[in-house]
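Please describe the entry underneath.
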Amino acid sequence: MPVMTRKKLDGVSETALSRFVSRAQRGAGVAGEINVLITSSDELQRFNREYLGKDKPTDVLSFPSALNGGGGDIAISWQIAQQSAKALGHSLSDELKVLILHGTLHLAGLDHEDDRGEMQRLEQKLRVQLGLPHSLIERTGRTTVSRTSRKRAVRGGRK
């Protein structure tokens, strides 16, 4: 299953998010399978510590596949997504889609830290096409990226 949530989230349909993953994947030009795990901040903190050496929670992490087919995995903190959605005045479902899009662009090999705005421009274009609120890069005004030896883990915009 492309999207799996560890907790039942009000107003969030795994089926609708799975359809969105397919749309984001086509827009970003990512081949292969993308799996999305929506889980707790504690689990994101564990992933962040294990793969990036940063012992704190974050909103989204992307793990490009080591296989030739492309794709990869995206992990999202539902708690941080919920806080952001409330603070920004949109639905949790929309916030999860913003994070899925951002993670998908990282799976496409884009890196907002050193790509001279390429990822931001594509994220903004796709955000408009997909009917989403402000992109993660647009609203944070900062970028963060790190790499691991086996897989590259890419963090979204939350420090």
Q: What stands out?
A: The first strand starts at residue 3 and ends at 5. The beta strands are 3-5, 34-39, 60-64, 72-77, 154-155.
